[in-house]
């Protein structure tokens, strides 16, 4: 229950009086700032907003096209830690409407049951079966065993001029941009499993994320077409997408590698051209 003390009530009354007495906008803004400070002190603003972390919220509600991997990618988290914080098993199944803790909890989570739907059944989602999350064209790729070790060799997803280099300080440069031709084949940088294929991550357009090991993931953004669905095992060099554009710029691929949930410079791993 929200607690409102006498000082907060007085501040609200002063603000109402100021508005009714036609105070200037500057004066009203000053009163609003004072009132906001009072609310913070008195605890009227929910703790999850006061204690928000890098994700912007302490909790995240699972949406229809989400996978655990895409949520972790969006907020720069290690998917294994996100699973551990929410007591999610190694199959990494999440449920539509489930609320996920987005930071290391101070104490163990007692319950993490998904939100009940009106139909009585909440669909489970591991790697995804949503219609909006499926590629426009499916390519059958021969199944192989996912290597538990990091890739020993990485290959360029496309051959082309480097348009942007890596910068950890800029959100749109957490990877590299490679020029090419519209519709050009995009290839897997190493063998792995497709853990996300969709377009729900803002700023990435059509995006594919491949899990190569317990530590390493790679991402392929701005695709014109996604040719593999979630759960597909791919070999190094397998065609997974077609190159597209971003913000009406020249055709390009945005390529990222993450280690333990953190962006790393792909140029440290890719061979010299």
What name does CATH use for the topology of the largest domain? Glucose Permease (Domain IIA)
The ordered H/E elements are HHHEHHEEEEEEEEEEEEE
Q: Supply the helix-strand structural class.
A: alpha+beta
Number of beta-strand segments: 14
Low-confidence stretches: 1-5, 41-56, 108-123, 127-134, 136-145
The CATH architecture of the largest domain comes to Distorted Sandwich
- Count of domain modules: 3
Principal-axes shape call: globular
Strand content: 15-25%
Largest sheet: 10 strands, antiparallel
CATH superfamily of the largest domain: Glucose Permease (Domain IIA)
Mean pLDDT: 76
Helical proportion? 10-25%
What is Rg? 23 Å
Q: Cα distance, first to last residue?
A: 62 Å
Summarize the structure.
This protein is α+β, with helices and mostly antiparallel strands and 273 residues long. Helix content is 19%, strand content 23%.
